[in-house]
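User: Round two. Same drill as before: sequence, then structure, for each protein.

Assistant: Same drill it is. First protein:
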Amino acid sequence: MKAYISKKANNNLRKYLDDLGYTPVSVATEGIVYDAVSCHPDIFMCKLGAGDDAPIVFAEEKEIGYEYPGDIAFNAACTGKYFIHNLKYTNPRLLKKARELGMTLVNVRQGYSKCSIVIIDEKSIITYDKGIAKSCAQYEDLAVLLVEPGHCVLESFDTGFLGGCSGRACNKVIFNGNLESHPDFEKIKAFIESRGLECVWFSEFKLTDIGSIIIEQ
């Protein structure tokens, strides 16, 4: 099993994933997209579900643009049942796969949808984005925890996105850094645990957006 993570991911996260039985695979590119996201897995691949065995669609270099909106073509957030993205900019091949799988398409204004959403399970997400929360509210079985924006690091920017700090592996929702530093820590932890999942974080380094942790079985 593989865990796609940024080449800049903390070594403590790498060791944790390795101990769980996942082989960390570093993502590193140059010249395809702007530097701040050039190592972010969720720019170059999209996982179509929450579980380890969910399929992944990998981008080809020619399908990615250097900056917005070209760089968001694969940055959809997918629970398995729901496909959440700014559908105007979704890569056609990815959108076709989502339709083939019978996923419900949810159109949002936020192009960096995966960066903005923590995938919990098929019917549960966490986001700071009020527009995403509003669009998802029309689906009664889709639970959304709305949290404060910011409070995480992203190189070259004032703040990062919580979704980009996270990843689902087996029965764990893992955060790259100190989740306790987030003002909604207790709500986030309780929301995840109420779904029968374990919330994992690393107090020894800052909560940092690394473009998600994407597991391939």
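Second protein:
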Amino acid sequence: MARKLRTKEMVRLSVEEYKEAEKEPLVVVLDDVRSIYNVGSVFRTCDAFRVEAVYLCGISAQPPGKEMHKTALGAEESVAWRYFPTALEAVEELKQRGYTVYAIEQAEGSISAEDFRAEPGRRYAIVLGNEVKGVHQEVIDASDGCIEIRQDGTKHSMNVSVTAGIIIYKILRG
């Protein structure tokens, strides 16, 4: 029978050690994500996978904040982040820096997350959209493609922070 580990038994980096540690070549772009709790949850997931950075765009909340801290649990202090007025500006900069950018969206010609295979050595960015409207069309147009998570239920969307976790895991762990 397995015994659950105590917190003190888990080897964790300090915020300072985390900032100095090697990061995964992935940037997560939040395109007008309206819920501060979703933003905090994305920070926490990005910390868990040592994602390079989070780009907060448009109305997406920015640290610091007590509400964000409720779900980020301090990850907003460890994970690097930048603000852009629009996700399009963030995507354009990432592409200039050599990133392959995928919008996470249900779109014509999208790649199924099940079929997606990250290429070793390539730097990626993913764009996650607003909880109601999704990723802006001009951001989709500027991206290298779209990745879609197959959904077999009655709903047409998933929570943005859950989607982030699934896609980050898929890109980084295959």
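Helices lie at 15-20, 36-49, 66-72, 75-78, 87-96, 137-142, 160-173.

User: Perfect.
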